Amino acid sequence: MREAHGDIVESKPFRVRRSDIDNNDHVNNIRYIEWMQEGLDESLYENMRIQRLGIVYRKEVLLGDSFTVGFMRDKDNPGHMDHVISVDGEVNAQGYTKWAEKGLLE
Length: 106
Known about the structure:
Layout: E1 9-10, E2 14-15, H1 29-36, H2 42-47, E3 48-57, E4 66-73, E5 80-87, E6 90-101
Antiparallel strand pairs: 1-4, 2-4, 3-6, 4-5, 5-6
């Protein structure tokens, strides 16, 4: 994971629902990616798109858990964001996204 350089913005708590659980009784991996995007300003999606995404799963989030999603925009590079999903203050997953203007290629 990259070293974070910014102020974290934390979401209100969410709860893991039955629909988040896959056939193996685990939270489906795509849900973590969707959760990382919670709380981001809608205006971001109007002009930007995710160019790169990475996630590290540290500890499973379970059915019924209450969790928060935090993100921080890199002050040195506003197109980079770091994300964290945590239960009771313990980090369950960390991720990053790199955003680019729509229509621009890397």
